[in-house]
Write a structure and sequence with these properties.
311 residues, mainly alpha, MetI-like fold, 2 domains, 13 helices, flat
């Protein structure tokens, strides 16, 4: 017995260094595989953010090498800038209306296609077409669609006897933001449709069969079983919609460039104008830094609130 105990003890002592060495090799392997990712994140995300905050403390035209350190003067100017607050208000309006329209319509289409099965398979491709187009192409296309003289929308309204409703869709400050928002919804609703549809396919069919046996209607099954199971996906979709709407740029820049009279001005379009058109690189960096802070804070708050509800 004594010899056996000693042999076991010696064997355990020999195994421990081997386990430690194996664990170190495993950790080293993980670090080596992650190093390229960390390098890319540092070069293309972390450093630009730090550089943007540094430039926000300077006065610089973006061309010459001379930079004047002015402290927080740009930030004080930003707080008193009515154009920035107008742009922020437009961003928030797009956020609210995107959440109100994109997610419910995407959910409705996902339910329709999920219930339709193979009969509606072709519509999955048709509904997904808008997302396959680039935002620049969509913007150029809808500039013609919204043309007040020859555009599809105005021609249709005149054709059905509603010519009095025709507007200069991209030139009237009262309606231009909603005209652009309709294009944004048209472009991104398919994304949320696919997202919700993928989540629905992951729900076991046994749950539906059990609910039917218990006498539940399709509406009751959706509201009491499907929707609660999709809460995590809805939470992710809401966060994506919120973040995307706060940093939106390309389609609005192509269609209106923030006009007319700042009616569609967003934080991103205002930043580009200040940095690359007015050559106020320091102030443009301040707007970009403010965008980062605003988006980060709002996203964290929303995710925190929804996490509590999920728990």
């Amino acid at each position: 017995m004594g010899d056996t105990f000693m042999a076991t003890a010696v064997s355990d002592r020999l195994r421990k260094p081997r386990r430690r060495a194996s664990q170190r090799e495993y950790t080293l392997t993980i670090v080596l595989f992650l190093l390229p990712l960390f390098a890319l994140l540092a070069v293309f995300i972390i450093w630009p953010i730090i550089s943007s905050f540094q430039l926000s403390l300077t006065k610089w035209n973006g061309i010459t090498t001379a930079r004047e350190f002015i402290g927080f003067a740009n930030w004080l100017q930003l707080l008193r800038d009515p154009v920035f607050w107008k742009a922020l208000a437009n961003n928030i309006l797009i956020v609210v209306l995107s959440l109100v329209f994109q997610l419910p319509i995407g959910m409705a289409l996902a339910v329709l296609l999920d219930k339709g099965g193979k009969r509606l398979r072709v519509f999955k491709t048709i509904y997904f077409f808008p997302l396959l187009m680039s935002s620049v192409a969509s913007g150029i296309l809808f500039k013609y669609v919204y043309d007040p003289t020859f555009g599809l929308v105005s021609s249709f309204l005149r054709g059905v006897g509603l010519g009095s409703l025709v507007r200069n869709w991209l030139g009237d400050p009262q309606v231009v933001l909603f005209s652009v928002l309709a294009v944004i919804c048209w472009e991104y609703i398919p994304f949320y449709m696919i997202l919700f549809l993928a989540a629905m396919t992951g729900i076991p069919e046994e749950l539906h069969e059990a609910a039917v046996i218990d006498g539940a209607t399709e509406n009751q099954y959706f509201w009491r079983i499907t929707l609660p199971l999709l809460y995590g996906t809805i939470r992710v979709a809401a966060a994506l919609s919120l973040i995307g709407s706060l940093k939106y740029f390309d389609l609005i820049w192509v269609m209106t460039e923030g006009g007319p009279t700042r009616a569609t001005e967003l934080m991103a379009t205002y930043m580009v104008k200040e940095a690359f058109q007015a050559f106020h690189m320091g102030y443009g960096s301040t707007i970009a830094s403010a965008m980062f802070v605003i988006i980060m804070v709002i996203a964290l708050v929303v995710l925190r609130i929804t996490r509590r509800k999920e728990a």
